[in-house]
Amino acid sequence: MKKLFLAIFALCTLLPLTGCKERYINLKKDDFKINIGEEVSTDLSDYVRANKKLLEKMTLDVSAVDVNRFGTYECSITYEDTVTYFDITVTDLEAPE
Q: What is the mean pLDDT of the chain?
């Protein structure tokens, strides 16, 4: 039993060092808000925490967002074979004057 525990422990400790990493996209948040009529940012660094090299390999799809209609729209970021979804909510953020 002790040998089995040590073998599992060694495997769990050494596996991350082999370079086999799960790819995932580190979103800054799951739901972004913009004011109605405001332009949707197409700058990946507004949505993702990643270095410049990784950002260059990612693609952003915000085509579903209608900035002239209130609502929540699903968007995506793709990195190699990983797709991560997030929402952009079009709302009235500005207080009336």
A: 83
